[in-house]
Amino acid sequence: MNRLRHSLELISIHIPKTAGTSFQHVLEINYPGALLRLDFEIIRNPDGQSTLLARNDTDPAFLKELHQSGKLSSNIRAVHGHFTYRDISELFDLHQDVKIVTWLRDPVERIISNYNYLYELLKKEMHDRPLALRLIHRLRRSIVEFAALPKNAHKYQYYLEGRNLDEFTFVGITENFQSDLTDLADLLEWTSRKAIHVNQTASKSVSLDEKERRQLEILFTEEILLFKNALSLRDLRLSSKG
Fold first, then answer.
1. Which residues pair with 126 in a beta bridge?
2. Lowest mean per-residue pLDDT among 110-114, 159-163, 231-235
3. How far, in whole angstroms, is CA 11 from its chain's centroid?
4. Beta bridge partners of 173
5. Can you list the alpha helix ranges (DSSP code H) found in the chain?
6. How many C-beta atoms surround the C-beta of residue 53 within 10 A?
7. Where are the chain's structural domains?
8. Burial of 203 (0-12, 13-18, 19+ CB in 10 A)
9. Contact 21, 174 (CB under 8 A)
10. Could you tell me if 115 and 206 are in contact, meaning their C-beta atoms sit under 8 angstroms apart?
């Protein structure tokens, strides 16, 4: 796959349920008319061929046209969305001037948020009809069963594979969103640093007992270690500020 030409300054990798929607609003303020929301993945076939697939609200026709053109519009300076580092680096030539950022969250809290969000979304899609809600309740997986699904395992490694945390321009911590956002704004010399908190699940969060939380911690052992590494990098960043 030939990489696209571009004039990008910033790439933001949005891992699900890490305040990515709030961060997108911040990016829209700081890159008015110059931010592209892009959700995609690249399927690599055994024969060596790659297939570019649009995800979520990204228009497949737009993605196909973009790839055929061989370049991104020169007015686009930032890209934000659900894509892996490996895929975005295959789609674009990421020269050293392109700043790459992402946000991480306590892995257990992230999967709980994801679980609640999808459950509420399903309820909404079923229009809260009593029978549908009873069926959802009967078929609903436990939080531990949900977390153990292959698509939910190693989420951080999946999104960030190919680049060490200390090689990112900035790794924010969702639990410290406002203060880390201020640091990022200073780093990138943004004129606006307004934080907009959105996309929060309105219903009561699932309640975990000690056994369930321990099961989740075991499931996400590697992700927790990676998150602790991100916290250590944050400590270094703060200490360097004096």
1. none
2. 110-114
3. 12
4. 104
5. 20-30, 60-69, 85-91, 107-125, 130-139, 143-148, 155-160, 177-188, 210-219, 221-240
6. 13
7. 10-105+167-188, 107-151+201-240
8. exposed
9. no
10. yes
Residues for the chain: how many in total? Answer: 242
Task: State the amino acid at position 39 in one-letter form.
Answer: D
What is residue 136's predicted lDDT score, i.e. its pLDDT? 62
Provide the pLDDT for residue 16. Answer: 94
pLDDT at 192 over 90: no
The C-alpha atoms of residue 3 and residue 81 are separated, in whole angstroms, by 18
- The amino acid at residue 115 is Y
Tell me if 91 sits within 8 A of 44, measured CB to CB. no
Cβ–Cβ contacts within 10 Å for residue 242, how many? 4
Read off the pLDDT band of 131 (50, 70, 90): low
d(CA 10, CA 219) in angstroms, rounded, equals 33
pLDDT of residue 32: 95
- Quick check: 233 and 164 in contact, CB under 8 A? no
For residues 76-91, average pLDDT: 97
Starting at the earlier edge strand, list the strands of the sheet with 10-13: 35-37, 78-81, 10-13, 99-104, 170-173
Terminal CA-CA length for the chain: 45
Query: Which pLDDT belongs to residue 213?
Result: 93
**Rounded to an integer, what distance in angstroms lies between the CA atom of residue 228 and that of residue 4?**
35
Q: Are 100 and 11 in contact (CB under 8 A)?
A: yes
pLDDT value of position 203: 47
